[in-house]
Design goal:
Deoxyuridine 5'-Triphosphate Nucleotidohydrolase, Chain A; 2 domains; mainly beta; globular; ten-stranded antiparallel beta sheet; seven-stranded antiparallel beta sheet
């Protein structure tokens, strides 16, 4: 069966040694449709960000461009605006028809910690080719804050797939709409507002993705990182221990429905729409769309089956949290401005566990913008 692999098929790859780690793969690393990857003890400070070419190995790059090694057997601080390479504990020996795609975990994306997987002989970030056998490395760039990491920390995640089956517009409308109603009046089971009212599927774009908009009509509409300060490093092992006031400033509802965003500042917002992911699908939030403005939206792009759904569809959606950074210019954004897209894809089978149902989840009940799990409520 084509599609993204569910939890039980990921576990089969672990059981057969196609995905292995000297520390073993912990059960909590296997998510409904993704696998958390963990840091090893081996890390390097690099002179810059780079990719291997042709037959180059990542270790060839380290030999030429590393500044100094870092041992993560003990906690170490990674300094913001610096580039690091960390070997991941997981080693791949994928079957010939299986490929993988990586992305930030939500918790690291929300602290502006950029991570990208690189692997031998592959000049592309985050894309692991079919049948890949070898080491995996993680490029880590703290953008707003220093971070403290150690062996075993999980900063990113990967989906594994046997051909990705992204839903196009006709499939989205057929599966989630009311097929005989006009498009603008159709109400789907995957898109609601904060009151639980179904939203019309006129949000379906031409490519089949759902067009999501910004919610600036809340008491606190978002947060902005205090980059001018130099707070203590965020320790990724200290869950719920950091004072949010040391790192972020809350943004109150704008009086005129518009916000001024500073160039290169880091913001956290949420979508107006509450989205649901039924068990037979996963979702990727597309990270950048130039038609929506010159900014990056969302480092962490995977939404597991069950997000905003529950066990049998009893949850009427959950808003998505966005990480936004204006790049080229200062930017004015307004309530209900399109800001990102959600692309649904089919799984090869329904997973044996769902996000927020029997699986520990930090954001299943988020309502509006929410900081990372590393901060006190």
């Amino acid at each position: 069966m084509r599609g993204t692999l569910p939890s039980q098929e990921i576990q089969k790859l672990v059981d057969t040694g196609a995905v292995r780690s000297p520390a073993g793969i912990a059960p909590e690393q296997v998510q409904p449709s993704s696998l958390d990857l963990s840091l090893s003890v081996e890390a390097y400070s690099m002179t810059g960000s780079l990719l291997p070419l042709g037959s180059e190995k990542v270790r060839d790059l380290i030999e030429r461009f590393a500044r100094y090694p870092i041992n993560l057997r003990e906690p170490a601080v990674l300094v913001r605006d610096n580039v690091y390479l960390v070997r991941l504990r997981e080693h791949f020996g994928l079957p010939g028809e299986i490929a993988a795609y990586a992305n930030n975990k939500s918790s690291t994306g929300r602290i502006d910690l950029q991570t990208r997987v690189i692997c031998d002989g592959n000049p592309r970030y985050d894309k692991i080719p079919q049948g890949y056998t070898g080491e995996l490395w993680l490029e880590v760039i703290p953008k707003s804050f220093d971070v403290r990491v150690r062996n075993g920390d999980c900063l990113n995640q990967v989906i594994l797939y046997r051909g990705r089956e992204i839903l196009d517009a006709p499939r989205m409308l057929k599966l989630f709409g009311e097929p005989h109603a006009p498009k603008k009046t159709r109400a789907g089971r995957i898109l609601h507002d904060a009151a639980g009212t179904p939203l019309g599927l006129d949000a379906v774009a031409e490519d089949g993705a759902l067009l999501m908009t910004l919610d600036l009509d809340q008491d606190v509409v978002g947060f902005v990182a205090k980059k001018s300060l130099k707070p203590k490093p965020i320790d990724l092992a200290a869950i719920g221990k950091h004072d949010p006031d040391d790192y972020f400033e809350p943004i109150k509802r704008p009086k005129d429905g518009a916000l001024f965003l500073r160039q290169n500042a880091f913001y956290i917002f949420s979508t107006y729409e509450y989205i649901s992911v039924p068990p037979e699908y996963a979702v990727e939030m597309l990270p950048y769309d130039t038609s929506a403005g010159e900014f990056r939206a969302h480092y962490a792009g995977f939404f597991d089956p069950g997000f905003g759904w529950g066990e049998k569809g009893e949850i009427k959606g959950t808003p998505a949290v966005l990480e936004v950074r204006p790049y080229e210019d200062d930017l004015i954004v307004r309530h209900r401005q399109p800001v990102c897209k959600m692309a649904y894809e089919s799984l090869s089978a329904n997973p044996q566990k769902l996000y927020g149902v029997g699986v520990k989840s930090n954001y299943a009940t988020q309502r509006g913008p929410r900081l990372s799990k590393f901060f006190k409520p």
